[in-house]
Amino acid sequence: MKKINLYSILSALLLVTGCAGSRDLVYFSNMANSGAVNNNIPGTVIIHQKDILSVTVNSSNPESNLLFNSNKTAGANNQSNQSGYKVNEKGMVNLPLIGDYKIEGLTIEDAQADISKKLSAFVKNPVVDIQLLNFKISVIGEVNKPSTFIITNENVNLLEALGMAGDMTVYGRRDNVLVIRNENGRKTMNRLNLNNVEAMDSPYFNLKQNDIVYVEPDKSKAVEYSQNTRMLPVVIASISALAVLAAVLLKR
Predict the structure, then answer these.
(1) How many CB atoms lie within 10 A of CB 10?
(2) CB-based contacts of 91: which residues, under 8 Å, 6+ apart?
(3) Are 146 and 165 in contact (CB under 8 A)?
(4) How far apart are CA 121 and CA 104, in angstroms?
(5) Residue 14 CB: number of other CB atoms within 10 A?
(6) Rounded CA gap, 193 and 177, in Å?
(7) Residue 216 CB neighbour total at 10 angstroms
(8) Angle CA(228)–CA(233)–CA(235) in degrees, nearest 5?
(9) DSSP code of 103?
(10) What is the pTM of this model?
(11) How far apart are CA 160 and CA 27, in angstroms?
């Protein structure tokens, strides 16, 4: 009877120490071993006030190219040494040969086409290239390197953003990543479960300018820093001592 009771005590102790909530730390863990995913196409970039644009022109006239490309007026930001054309509070930029040009609200593709059309009155075969110099996203919360990042190609998805931030910590909730977006002066928020491959179909998976990604900590982090958890080493030491004592008694 004594041996049975000792076995019962040991089993209970091991059960207490071994019972921890399991978490899925694998991205898209529900995806099959093979197969294609119908990921949504990245959204088009809309130009807004305070955007800083790189506008370059290539044409048959080298002098016109130099005039246009050397007359950039605004520093982009502290994180970039590039300079560009800043969209003012009226949504306009001042371009050589064209003058004040209303660019706010246009996509980059539409602005390129329209500026090329206007420049064709002055230069031959103009080809316009526009890039957004201050396309930025922020990644905060349970990541290894929270920061704000400048994106040079206006195309970044949620996984790439997490990669730039050094990935999630072990406490980051992969099933509840929050994306905060500002569209037309209105903030919208959406939560994505990155354990589920269907998250790639969300319009929030591909990030937009000024998006904020917040990785929420799970409950285990709160437990780790709670007052009760400070006693964990003492509890483990006590369990170990009891296990040794039980082993000695069982040999008698």
Answers:
(1) 16
(2) 49, 102, 103, 104, 105
(3) yes
(4) 23
(5) 12
(6) 6
(7) 17
(8) 70
(9) -
(10) 0.67
(11) 13
Residues of the chain with pLDDT below 50 are 1-4, 16-20, 34, 36, 75-81
Please tell me the predicted confidence (pLDDT) of residue 246. Answer: 65
Residue pair 161/213 in contact by the 8 Å Cβ criterion: yes
Q: Are 142 and 173 in contact (CB under 8 A)?
A: yes
pLDDT digits (tens, 9 = 90+) for 147-173: 999 998 888 999 999 999 999 999 999
- At residue 72, the pLDDT reads 56
CB 211 within 8 A of CB 162: no
Helix intervals (H) in the chain: 2-18, 62-69, 108-119, 158-164, 219-224, 232-251
Residue 202 exposed, middle or buried by CB count within 10 Å (0-12, 13-18, 19+) = middle
Tell me, what amino acid is at 75? G
Q: How far is CA 187 from CA 180, 190, 211, in A?
A: 7, 10, 10
Taken in order 137, 141, 145, 146, the sign of the CA dihedral is: positive
Give the model's pLDDT for residue 94.
92
Q: Where are the beta strands (DSSP E) in the chain?
A: 52-58, 74-77, 80-86, 92-95, 99-102, 127-132, 136-141, 147-150, 156-157, 172-183, 186-192, 206-207, 212-217
DSSP state, residue 179: E
Neighbours of 89 (CB within 10 A): 8
User: Which residues, including other chains, have CB under 8 Å from residue 249's CB and lie 6 or more apart?
Assistant: 2, 6
What per-residue confidence (pLDDT) applies to 127?
Answer: 92
Measured CA to CA, the distance from residue 72 to residue 201 in angstroms comes to: 39
